[in-house]
Structures are given as C-alpha cells and as structure tokens.
Amino acid sequence: MTIRNLFDRQGVEETIQRINQLNEESQPLWGKMSVDQMLAHLNVSYDMDHTNKYQKPTGVRKFLVKLFAKKVVVGEDPYPKNGRTAPQFIISDSRDFAFEKKRLIENIHKTFAIGAEAYNGRASHSFGPLSTIEWNNLYSKHIDHHLTQFGV
Predict the structure, then answer these.
(1) What is the mean predicted confidence (pLDDT) over 4-14?
(2) What gap in Å lies between CA 125 and CA 68, rounded to an integer?
(3) What is the per-residue burial (b if ≥16 Cβ within 10 Å, else e) of 91-111?
(4) 8 closest CA partner among 119, 124, 152
(5) Phi/psi of residue 95, each to 5°?
(6) 0.85 cut: is pTM over it?
(7) Domain parsing of the chain, residue ranges
(8) How many whole angstroms separate alpha carbon 67 and alpha carbon 73?
(9) Helix, strand, coil % (nearest 5) of the chain?
(10) Tell me, what's the pLDDT at 144?
C-alpha cells in the first residue's frame, strides 16, 4: 500500500481519479457497505475535523480510544479487511451516491487548501494533537482502504 500525500496536489489528483472510477453500481470485494454508505462513511472523518457534528470522547473513553485505536488509524500499516469501526462511522441507511461523492471530493480539496502546515499539531477529534504525517495517514489510509474495497 502506498500512502498518498493528500497535502500534495498529485496525491489529491490521484485519489480523486480513483474516486471518480466509482459509480452507483460499484460492488465491494469484502464487507457489508454499499458504495453510497462507504462514501458517507469516509465523510465522517472530515466532519469530525471540520464540524462540531460529533461529540468528542472524554475521560476513560478518550484514553481507551487513544490507547487502542490511534496507532492503527494514524500509523503506517494498512487497515485489515473487515476491521471494526467506531459507532459514529457506521452508516446503516442508504445515502445519495452523487451527493456523498461530491462531498468527499470537496472535503479532500478543503483539507488540501487548509494546508499541511495548519495540520501540524492540530488536534483531532479523538486523538488530540497529530503531526501532519499522522493527519495524512488518517485520511489517506482510510480512503485507500475503502477504494481498494471497491476495486479502484
């Protein structure tokens, strides 16, 4: 797995090219999500960063999330197939494919526009301050995992 740099124009363009290969009929190679649910699922990470839509973990829950999930989420190793996800990332209803796809592309562009420097030390919703590399891994690995899941 190559972790694309989503703070670099080429990494952004390559990722968006892959997203544009998806269509409403795209089927997963593993897992239970439909393509529209997967796109909405990917948007949750950006919503956590760019909005106050989700409550931040506190106390023991925050400690446990950092202890058990941070290394997996922001580290260099790829995600395993059929791994567990946090409850707020579970999308169980149907979503509008075109809307979620457009929103994901907009979120990628927005994060790129904010820039790598602004992300160095920026606090994440669940893990506290992260380096630019960790932020990139958080976004890029997640997107790559699910695009691979859908064969693109």
Answers:
(1) 98
(2) 15
(3) beeebebeebbebbbebbeeb
(4) 119
(5) -125, 165
(6) yes
(7) 9-149
(8) 11
(9) 55, 5, 40
(10) 97
